[in-house]
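Protocol step 4 of 6: structure prediction from sequence.
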Amino acid sequence: QVQLVESGGGSVQAGGSLRLSCAAPPYTNSMYCMAWFRQTPGKEREGVAVISSTGSTVYADSVQGRFTISQDNAKNTLYLQMNNLKPEDTAMYYCAGGVCSLSRQSYPYWGQGTQVTVSS
């Protein structure tokens, strides 16, 4: 069973920064990309950033230039550094493991989520 555990959420003022972490198992043939998604009540879960086992990254337009996804393979940990946060970044953030895509359908493995709240 694949377990993903997020941490690092919290409350911050607009313009501030947070770093999310996700403890994950090593990559496998069926899980060779990791991603961060976010969701607010009543809205679809949207892809924020993706990183492959080789380190290639893709970002949603809404976070490009402000968020950075990275990984420490020795620690089996995924990160999301979020800078210049905006109130519209407020959401539950999830890490996910699967194949490389910003579509939630590509990810069979999910963490429990961590809340990020940005106040204006």
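Step 5 (inspection) to follow. The chain has a mean pLDDT of 95.
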